[in-house]
Amino acid sequence: AVPTPQWRPVYHFTPPKNWTNDPNGLIYLDGVYHLYYQHNPYENKWGHMSWGHATSKDLLHWKHLPVAIPEIVTKDTTTWIFSGSAVLDQHNTSGFGKNGKAPLVAIYTADQPKQKKESQFIAYSNDGGLTYTNYPGNPVVDLNKKDFRDPSVIWLEDQQQWLMTVALPAAHKIQFYSSADLKEWKLLSEFGDQGDTRKIWECPSLTPIFVDGDTTRKKWLLMISSGNPDAATGMQYFVGDFDGKTFTNDHPPGHKMFVDYGRTFYAAIPYNNLPGNRQTMLGWLMPFETPTWPWRGQMSIARDLLLKSTPEGVRLFQQPSEVLYAVLEKLPAARKMQKENVTLRGELPLGGAKQFHNNAWWIEAELTPGTAETTGFKIARQMSGNKVVAETVVGYHSQRGELVIAQVKDGKGTGEPERVPVKPVNGKLKLQVLLDKSSLEVFVNGGEKVITTLIFPEKGATGLAAFAENGEAKLDRLKAWDLGK
Ligand code: FRU
User: Fold this and answer.
1) Atom of ligand 1 at shortest distance to CA of 46?
2) pLDDT > 70? residue 242
3) Predicted pLDDT at 234
4) ipTM, 2 decimals?
5) Closest residue by CA, ligand 1 atom 6
6) Domain boundary among 280, 296, 324
7) Would you report the helix, strand and coil content of the chain in percent, each value rounded to 5?
8) 306 and 362, same structural domain?
9) CA of 83 to the centre of ligand 1 (A)
10) Residue 36 and residue 50: Cα distance in Å, rounded?
11) Structure confidence by residue, pLDDT tens digits, 458-482
């Protein structure tokens, strides 16, 4: 294998080495964000599924810790530790607490390939989440099924009980269970066969969020990872009400809404135990075909989840977590760039000789598309003399009303461009473009739409420009940070 340091993100999480997929057990404890993740500790490909572990104080810099829950191998059974969640059992409902200290409890899917079986297991930690002990009474939920996975558990304050949201992937069904002690679970209701049912359903989560931040208007966000055939993969969401038993969709069953319009964002789950009313998620960016080494897979930027009223109904908006902006604001002046009221006709190169030439930057821009046919940014540009050899174009197409990400080589598109329908608001388009070596996340209009993809530029392909083609646009405002090494 060939090492690929040029594709190792600097401000997104990657394991030091080997494979990762889904984030698991996201929980905030005493000022620390814990991230567990689907991990193969031995190889740079899927297998030996275990929960890897890392922590962060700012959601940007991660400290790597030993595997927290390893696969369980006995003479006749291999148990893989599939996706799930972690909770702080504040009232020691489980009885796993020790010396008056609340235990952490992980609720995960035990996948037993030999038995072709998935059931829900629990494990507890008395050392702050470093190590876990499997509960001898496992499984705690078992339907004797091959596909039954990804429990997401939250504490329901009103009902004073635990709620588990878990998927029956092939049936396009979600089940809700409740429990008083995390051990005995009772089926509450099912939700399914709505929205996008063209691919299996995985990694569900149900999250209460105050609409427009108004604490008298609580709605429930149900997110499900499910292939979106319009892109190669995807996550969908539903908004509705939850009465402690049943989820009621705000929209008719056929209505579809997507979390992210790119090919790579998947298996995202929210953090548990966050202070205040904030809800924040991490997603996995699927690595596709391109081999990175010695690691594979990365997490998205932490995204705050917002529900906003729109004329069409309540919609999900996502923003890079507000926690991250505190870190950006502390960066030295040399790592910041600011522009205002620049007319765009053709290209405007951005950045200096060193700054913003490392493919690890974060741009926030407000553009007036004006008469331009296309406007936006050309990034990860590779030059040969003064000829452009390759680049990725993040462009708004006025006529189509779409934000398009197109990877271009020798003047030709490589692969299908990724696109999302968007509209300027009062003539202006807001773009937050986060490029981190191989990951590219674009938030449009304050996160009304998000599109995430992976790019694998050649070494030295680091050029950056704003542009307007066939007409004139205006760069009303640009603020950018260089996070590169
Ligand atoms: C989603 C998923 C989950 C499962 C895990 C196994 O990517 O398939 O449904 O728990 O990955 O690694």
Assistant:
1) 12
2) yes
3) 85
4) 0.99
5) 82
6) 324
7) 5, 55, 40
8) no
9) 6
10) 9
11) 999 999 999 999 999 999 999 999 9
